[in-house]
Amino acid sequence: MTSQDHILDLLQNVKDPEIPVISVLELGVVRQVEVDADGKVVVTITPTYTGCPAMDVMATDIKKELVEHGIASVEVKQVLSPAWTTDWITDDGKRKLKEYGIAPPEKTGDIRALKGEAPMVPCPQCGSTNTVMVSVFGSTACKALWKCKDCLEPFDQFKCL
Amino acid sequence: MTDKEALFTYTLRLGDDLLILSHRLSEWCGHGPVLEEDIALANRALDHIGEARNLYDHAVQLEGKGRTQDDLAYLRKERDFVNTLLCEQPNGDYAHTIVRSFLFDAYHLPLAEALTKSSDATIAAIAAKAVKEAQYHLKHSSDWLIRFGDGTEESHRRAQEALDALWTYTGDLFTQDEVHKAMVKAGIAPDLQTIKAGFDATVDKVLDEATLKRPADGYMQSGGRAGKHSEHLGYILAEMQYLQRAYPGAEW
Description:
The structure holds two protein chains of two kinds. Chain A is α/β, with parallel strands linked by helices. Chain A has five helices and nine strands, in the order H-E-E-H-E-E-H-E-H-E-H-E-E-E. Chain A has helices spanning 4-11, 24-27, 54-68, 91-99, 111-114, and strands at 15-16, 19-23, 30-35, 41-45, 74-78, 102-103, 131-135, 143-148, 154-158. A four-stranded mixed β-sheet of chain A has the order 6-9-8-7. The mean pLDDT of chain A is 88. By secondary structure, chain B is mostly helical. Helix content of chain B is 67%, strand content 0%. Chain B is globular. The interface between A and B is medium-sized, with 26 and 29 residues.
């Protein structure tokens, strides 16, 4: 009998394909894990951004990870509601983003940061708050492009949503 | 037309706007005036197509004939598309592209906000996701429009020309025909007069800051919601549907 905890342990190995240091659990996209009496596992995930192409890859990777560990029957379902927000990224996830060089998102309550009106995003390289947003649209749907005016390095910021 | 058919058509309208605008924006990919804008438009195209896919999934469920989202995108003819005329207008120069998106964003954001309260749970859920992205879109197009309008003599002239040229397509956004009225009655869609109020407020505020002149509401083009399009849509579909028509059933 497969336990829910065992599934969660396995899901910790499934990383965001575009940010390979953070797991689907830390990203907060796993909404529910159910194991029924026959051992069938249903993992419910929710998309980060509506058009994020990584979602299909994550669903495939979740299936692959579980099947490779002997779980014969796996279904990955997507739900839209309630909508994912960056507040669902765990503290561990935020720390790992920062170590990877991506400034973690602000709390969504800070609406000024959401709209890029108060550039208070510290540089993940040197920690300076003397930073400027170059573009609200970055290398992936979830990121904005910033530049540090002290160490002069460009960096990604996980956009607040 | 039954209520269910009306809901199917309404869902298609929402989806078609986004698919067609997304296709237009994706035409800029690799041709953007600066790298950041190339990326920005590709991102926006991705947001729009994501929302369109969710709406198409909902539409085919409602229809219950076993069609897929790809069937709706790739196997319908021009007259079956019910997108608003604004979305299919050509990219033109960058001012045209930005003005087209700005006018759409000024409509899309209040619409998405209103649709979060839709009595159709799926449409409400899709809107709840879209509304946050739509804020970023409107911010992006507004910033550029202000920069163009309040920029150099040439950027001001081009922005005003784009606005004057595209204004005639804004009437079509607010068409309230029988389908729409049925949706309002069922609590699925908002009355477009309320959306128009939000649109007007945004347009007036941003144009004022951009030192651009709001064109007069003269003759308005119409027909998109009934499948009557400008000459441009056929060319979009020819390109967008080519692969599926040449290799039926191809998937990726």
